[in-house]
Write a structure and sequence with these properties.
The structure is a homodimer. By secondary structure, chain A is α/β, with parallel strands linked by helices. Chain A has 15 helices and 21 strands. In chain A, the strands form 5 sheets. In chain A, strands 14-15-16-13-12-17-18 form a 7-stranded mixed beta sheet, sandwiched between helices. Strand 18 of chain A pairs parallel with strand 19 of chain B, so a sheet runs across the interface.
Chain lengths: ~525, ~525
């Protein structure tokens, strides 16, 4: 059987000269899946980049609504293939078909594409700014090159490089995308790319607006993100890979947006335990187990007081985790990585409460794990204690007093989220007021009384945060329209004759509804 | 005489243990000025960073209007010291007192500070986003550490590290600033810092909101921008220094915003020459000579057709430049740098039309220079031909036809600005339509029929552009409020109890006038 085709320059075709090939594995059985995929060489990457530039030139002649039509048609196509997509994604990731793949992640993905379509039609995200007195006008425009998207292993649909949040944002901002599949689910990515390409044709978009490769060598990945003709990169994945790509992109002055590692600290204040320990424990257990713990917002660190209530709460969560079935991890290297991460915490004094070992299961597995450590020990080794273990692993930190809880918050690295559970009647408010100023600047999203898993796609969402959770604290990867600006250039037109301006900057409001900032005020009026 | 004091941790005091000292030079006489300034060591930098963190904690307890009051008072203080500031800046930079320092740059500086004050009061720049159904809310917040500002040599007031655009933006966004003076005008910077510090006290801002050092070693500059407790850096200066700082900051995942080098291409289309060659030449000559050519928006590259009109236009500009007096360059190294840059162009085939030599003047000087090159030769060596010569030096490219003009545009690096002069009656429109798609993505600001020097401080302005003009194409260094977001973190509040939210995200509109994006629509209403 030959290699699966790549999508380059508007055609599904065999890779010209693959550097190698690979197959995906079913994580539930540890067996190879039948299809074989090429590892593409630099020449294919460069072809894709050049083809994208041609697409950019073609796109300039089209109305922006073509992009919106594409996004909507693509969402329809995904729904039309729902069954086969769910089937294949389940084989490649072992994520449950129900509710996860079919009823949660797939609708989230199509919803995201449709929200992106709305943002394209609405145009307000482009932040058109018009100074009427000076005739200086500015607006977000597409980048001067395509966007490379690297998808993670843990969301085969919603963060897929050819269907997920970065894809939708980059396309909606008017850029061609070169998708680099996550090699753990190449078949799902191929199927999505087929659905996308059909929508490209049906909508009348330039054929090379969407291109897809399955895998490239590490070295060629660095060449892709630093290529002089690339616009930017969106990456979701490990801290190690992300930082390598960032280094290469930074040296080339190429924007790169990373969503990397996060342990998502959860502070459970004494009043919340007194009031509703059982309910909080139940929520937390569910959150820890979601996706076998392989969520970027998985609560990996729980901080509470070392008193009877705190210890009882920890025991309750420990029991819940040990009673729950062992989830299937996404890849062969999962169990080893978790063991290594736990090893770093243990070496500095964390102790296993439950779990801690690789599971002897048909699929890749690791026993649900809870570790504990004293606040003193945590503060002696804050770096090691913040090692991300990508699975159902949580470190409980038992602080000797409230002051130490605050000190722990102050020792934290950047995270996507930070959560504080507190008494609903206000009994914890004094502690909250000390804790919040320490925690809030270290997280992209601060939650109250709610687990961090579950990232709503809505305008106010921030899926971002200080490094190492991302590479820059000023952006979000989820939430439309704010995620679009990552893939845009801010451009100004100074004294440019009115008929030469982009439609969105001309005197007449192009839709009658687009929000523009005119002389410092937002308005939908025309000039 | 002792060393001049530094401003650290809310006190003017002697540097604790300077690594060395330096004096500034009067560029008009090449003589040292009397005052001596310390080169500060790493320990002083670290003290400043820690003091800034204390200021951040104090600032959280204050109303945002304190910052606005500071900015307004500071502008008043600058005006009250107008005469001595202009006197000293003239001594240190040789820039003319009139109109430049007194009637142009100083008012621009105070205007910018007052616009920043308005933005603080208005709060709309914070892009408050409220999703009422999900109670997810997000907003730009200050960074988790102070902003280091490195000012350039060419604008002692308007881009000064303790008074200019980056300073105003960083402070208005709620961050303490650690200003690193440009060593070519340390006295001006000290005087501004005194005016700033008096305003800090009078406004009731935390004393360490504004700190100032005169100079640090290159090595310590890298440590400053990559310090784990720093928020971000704003840098205006040379490409070489900027790229070194960027490399250090990037590795530490610290945001850095750079405004580096730009040759600001000007395309003069045949219809414009036919219609108004004399007027365009006069504008261009004035623009080339501004600040002895030491403007970041100085037109260093002029592209036109190699025909009778094009050559006549070039001769006219050459005459104008050679008849104009030789300006005084800002520093000792200026003439050598210009000679070196011109040497690179000559080596690849550019020819001197006028100028080309160091000037034998009392001050640092270089003869006003115009070089020419054929379009063919330019396209063979586009990199060398785009060498920035920081002075009155312009390379005229004589293109053999219109197609070659477009090819030249396509060969350009990123620039702050790009200008097209064209026939007012539309005779050049066909060429414009080919040229614009090539030029526009390569510049931050596209101009029609207007020289690029003169950067209006207004909301629509973009003083940015693709690398190497800056480090990232999505931001602007000038233009309030858009320049503020560089120094802000995007933070989200998910299910946070209403009374715990920042004022700007609570249900009631805090000013009644602040623009907030609510459920996708901009509004000044309360929830």
């Amino acid at each position: 059987m030959g290699l699966q085709p790549v999508l380059i320059n508007g055609t599904w075709r065999q890779d010209n000269a693959p550097e190698g090939s690979f197959r995906a594995t079913n994580p539930a059985t540890r067996q190879f899946l039948p299809d074989e995929y090429p590892v593409s060489a630099l020449a294919e990457i460069e072809l894709a980049i050049e083809a994208a530039h041609v697409a950019m030139a073609e796109l300039r002649l089209l109305e922006p609504d073509v992009i919106a039509r594409f996004l909507d048609l693509y969402a329809d196509n995904i729904e039309a293939r729902r069954e086969e997509l769910v089937e294949l994604a389940n084989l490649e990731t072992a994520l449950p078909k129900e509710p996860r793949l079919n009823s949660v992640e797939l609708p989230r993905t199509t919803n995201q594409l449709r929200q992106a379509a709305s943002a394209v039609r609405d145009r307000s995200w482009r932040h058109a700014t018009i100074d009427t007195k000076t005739n200086i006008r500015s607006i977000y425009m597409p980048l001067d090159g395509p966007v490379a998207v690297f998808g993670p292993n843990n969301f085969p649909f919603a963060f897929n490089s050819v269907a997920g949040g970065d894809f939708a944002a980059a396309i909606a901002a008017g850029n061609p995308v070169i998708a680099k599949a996550n090699p753990s689910h190449p078949g799902t990515t191929r199927m999505l790319a087929e659905a996308a390409f059909e929508a490209v044709i049906a909508a009348g978009l330039p054929r090379a607006m969407v291109q897809m490769l399955y895998r490239v060598s590490g070295e060629n990945g660095l060449k892709l993100v630093s290529h002089s003709r690339l616009g930017a990169t969106g990456f979701t994945g490990s801290r190690r890979a992300g930082m390598q790509l960032k280094d290469a992109a930074d040296r080339a002055c190429k924007p790169i947006y990373l969503e990397m590692s996060s342990i998502n600290p959860v502070f459970v204040l004494p009043g919340a335990l007194e009031e509703r320990a059982e309910a909080v424990a139940a929520e937390l257990i569910t959150s820890c187990l979601m996706g076998a713990g392989q969520f970027c917002t998985n609560p990996g660190l729980v901080v509470l007081l070392d008193d009877d209530e705190g210890r009882a709460f920890m025991s309750r969560v420990a029991s819940g985790l040990s009673e729950a079935p062992v989830g299937v991890l996404l890849g062969e290297r999962g169990p080893g990585h978790i063991r290594e991460a736990i090893g770093q915490m243990k070496e500095e004094g964390a102790e296993i409460v439950v779990g801690g070992d690789v599971a002897d299961t048909p699929g890749y597995g690791f026993h649900n794990t809870l570790l504990k450590v004293s606040g003193d020990t945590f503060l002696q080794h804050p770096d090691a204690m913040q090692t991300e273990a990508f699975g159902t692993v949580s470190l409980f930190v038992l602080a000797k007093d409230e002051e130490q809880m605050v000190a722990i918050a102050n020792s934290l690295d950047g995270n996507l989220t930070g959560t504080i559970y507190s008494h609903t009647g206000g009994a914890d408010d004094a502690l909250y007021d000390l804790l919040e100023p320490a925690l809030a600047p270290r997280v992209g999203r601060l939650l109250n009384d709610k687990v961090p898993t579950g990232v709503t796609v809505s305008p106010g969402m921030v899926h971002g945060g200080p490094p190492p959770s991302t590479g820059h604290p000023g952006f979000t990867a989820v939430g439309i329209p704010n995620s679009l600006v990552r893939f845009a250039a801010l451009r100004c037109y100074d004294n440019v004759r009115l008929h030469r301006l982009p439609n969105e900057l001309r005197n007449e409001n192009p839709t009658g509804k687009m929000w523009r900032s005119m002389d410092g005020q937002w308005t939908t009026d025309s000039v």
